[in-house]
């Protein structure tokens, strides 16, 4: 077996962000770029000899090439067994599931999630640890340090493997097993969710549409919804994963999943609509004539989770990322369980889940999940919704309104200013930080600032501290603004402004109208136009 040690020059920019290393495809196509980063990951793993590694991705452009490269580097680094999704495919939650089930040392997950794919699109490489979750900050920092000093990598000089046939091959001392990417995941869903109840729901004429956005969830959704659960053929649309996601932006929100959104708001709306993103960890839920914000979806799932077999014993606790609305906290209070507030990014939920402190968690960015894996899980959220609808016999929109009637409504929106010049974005954040102490008591658009800080997180399990995770401003009128810079963008900076306002009693107002004073205050406080030159955000979700 031709084991080669290849001299290389380190790249200074291989710093993982919110969710792994994400860059434009041409960056990853530079000679040795992928090899260096993968070797840097392996160099941080002391106990890889003979260990199992899971490899797969969302099927975007470069996915197959990088899977082949990763296999050859992993074999050269002494892993004992590689589990590779057929076709190089594994959704992010399925990768997490397979890592946990197989007792692997970890996994390499290839994805740039909801970002566009194709030769000019984005690509990404993420390392997930033994618990199935994204590597914590201490590990990603070590990978970055290693990458900066890398001088060589090891690789097997062998032909590409056939990724499309299930079965095992041997590469030197390493067994490479091509596995069905859906089987383990589907089996886990059948344990957690009442499939019989959902089967009866569909048999009774319940209609839904699931938009897989030409991304990785298609095969999973088809197998489970149309296969195991008996939804009508054609329920899953855009079900074939494509390297460029059909030229679309595989981001499940009202802007990029507009067809689904419009269908659910039209005259022939089915009973339920859902979509997922490039790598299958996000979900969008649309009830007939009612978009469900991800923050509300988390709260509603938490309130009803006990109706599903996997959560019948109740929830240990809940967690949400800091910019996510406080709707979930209200449910936690009613259930008498703790609620945690974490920085943005799924890696921060890992310690809480591992320690058994929480059962469900979620983010405003269309991510919801539970202790069944260590990633957010789009299809799982959809199945839990279906389980709840089947168990209550309620329409989805009625369920949401009943929730608001009990808990009040957290009106919510997010404004993104994309591809802003990095220096201007940094300057905006710094200017905000400099003013934090002066803001309380000041009035903007009729709203009085009550508190202002830069979110600092102390992990309650391991005590690790993460600073500067977003500026949050609370108003006396039960409204809140959060500002932070994206950690997943690949061009310039993206400023995210999260806006919310709570109303106990009035639930049928137009969110844009309710939030307009909060928007005006947010723009004035940060002087967004002055710093960025933008009068309006590029995306509103
Ligand atoms: C975004 C979201 C964050 C999410 C992350 C990864 O990060 O805001 O909530 O965890 O993407 O999701 P940022 O740093 O750009 O705001 V995914 O579906 O891209 O793995
Ligand atoms: Co994703």
UniProtKB/TrEMBL annotation:
Cited SUPFAM superfamilies: Phosphoglucomutase, C-terminal domain, Phosphoglucomutase, first 3 domains
Single Gene Ontology BP annotation: carbohydrate metabolic process
Taxonomy, superkingdom: Bacteria
GO terms for MF: magnesium ion binding; phosphoglucomutase activity
PROSITE patterns in UniProt: PGM_PMM (PS00710)
Cofactor(s), names only, from the UniProt record: Mg(2+)
Record keywords: Isomerase, Magnesium, Metal-binding, Phosphoprotein
InterPro entries, A to Z: A-D-PHexomutase_a/b/a-I, A-D-PHexomutase_a/b/a-I/II/III, A-D-PHexomutase_a/b/a-II, A-D-PHexomutase_a/b/a-III, A-D-PHexomutase_C_sf, A-D-PHexomutase_CS, Alpha-D-phosphohexomutase_SF, PGM
Enzyme Commission number(s) of this protein: 5.4.2.2
Ranges for domain Alpha-D-phosphohexomutase alpha/beta/alpha: 14-152, 184-286, 296-407
Entry GO terms, CC: cytosol
Catalytic reaction equation(s): alpha-D-glucose 1-phosphate = alpha-D-glucose 6-phosphate
Family, as annotated: Belongs to the phosphohexose mutase family.
Protein name stated in the entry: phosphoglucomutase (alpha-D-glucose-1,6-bisphosphate-dependent)
């Amino acid at each position: 077996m031709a084991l080669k040690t290849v001299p290389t020059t380190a790249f200074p920019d291989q710093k993982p962000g919110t969710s792994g290393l994400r860059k434009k495809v041409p960056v990853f196509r530079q000679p040795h770029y992928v090899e260096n980063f993968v070797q840097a990951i392996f160099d941080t793993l002391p106990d890889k000899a003979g260990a199992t590694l899971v490899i797969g991705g969302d099927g975007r452009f470069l996915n197959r090439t990088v899977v082949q490269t990763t296999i050859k580097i992993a074999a050269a680094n002494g892993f004992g067994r590689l589990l590779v999704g057929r076709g190089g495919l594994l959704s992010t939650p399925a990768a997490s599931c397979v890592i946990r089930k197989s007792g692997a040392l970890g996994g390499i997950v290839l994805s740039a999630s909801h970002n566009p794919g194709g030769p000019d699109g984005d690509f990404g490489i993420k390392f997930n640890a033994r618990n199935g979750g994204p590597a914590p900050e201490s590990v990603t920092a070590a990978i970055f340090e290693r990458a900066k000093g890398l001088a060589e990598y090891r690789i097997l000089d062998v032909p590409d493997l056939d990724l499309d046939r299930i079965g095992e091959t041997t590469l030197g001392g390493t067994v490479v097993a091509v596995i069905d990417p859906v089987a383990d995941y589907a089996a886990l869903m059948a344990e957690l969710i009442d499939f019989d109840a959902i089967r009866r729901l569909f048999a009774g004429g319940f209609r839904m549409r699931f938009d897989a956005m030409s991304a990785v969830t298609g095969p999973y959704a088809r197998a489970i919804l149309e296969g195991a659960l008996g939804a009508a053929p054609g329920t899953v649309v855009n079900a074939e994963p494509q390297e460029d996601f059909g030229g679309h932006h595989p981001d499940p929100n009202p802007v990029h999943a507009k067809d689904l959104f419009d269908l659910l708001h039209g005259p022939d709306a089915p009973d339920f609509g859902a979509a997922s993103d490039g790598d299958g960890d996000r979900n969008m839920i649309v009830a007939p004539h009612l978009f469900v914000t991800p923050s509300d979806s988390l709260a509603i799932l938490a309130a009803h989770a006990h109706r599903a077999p996997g959560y019948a014993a109740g929830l240990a606790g809940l967690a949400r990322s800091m910019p996510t609305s406080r709707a979930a906290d209200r449910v936690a209070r009613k259930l008498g369980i703790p609620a945690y507030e974490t920085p943005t990014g799924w890696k921060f939920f890992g310690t809480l889940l591992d320690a058994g402190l929480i059962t469900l968690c979620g983010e405003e960015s269309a991510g919801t999940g539970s202790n069944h894996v260590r990633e957010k899980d789009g299809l799982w959220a959809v199945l839990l919704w279906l389980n709840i609808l089947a168990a209550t016999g309620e329409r989805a929109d009625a369920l949401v309104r009943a929730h608001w009637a009990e808990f009040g409504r957290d009106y919510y929106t997010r404004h993104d200013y994309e591809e802003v010049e990095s220096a201007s974005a940094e300057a905006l954040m710094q200017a905000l930080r400099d003013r934090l102490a002066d803001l309380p008591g000041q009035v903007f658009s009729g709203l009085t600032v009550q508190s202002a800080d830069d979110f600092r997180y102390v992990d309650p399990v391991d005590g690790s501290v993460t600073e500067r995770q977003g500026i949050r401003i609370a108003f006396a009128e039960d409204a809140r603004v959060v500002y932070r810079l994206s950690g997943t963008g690949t061009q310039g900076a993206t400023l995210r402004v999260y806006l919310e306002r709570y109303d106990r009693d009035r639930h049928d107002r137009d969110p844009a109208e309710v939030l307009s004073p909060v928007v005006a205050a947010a723009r004035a406080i940060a002087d967004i136009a002055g710093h960025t030159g933008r009068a309006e955000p590029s995306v509103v979700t």
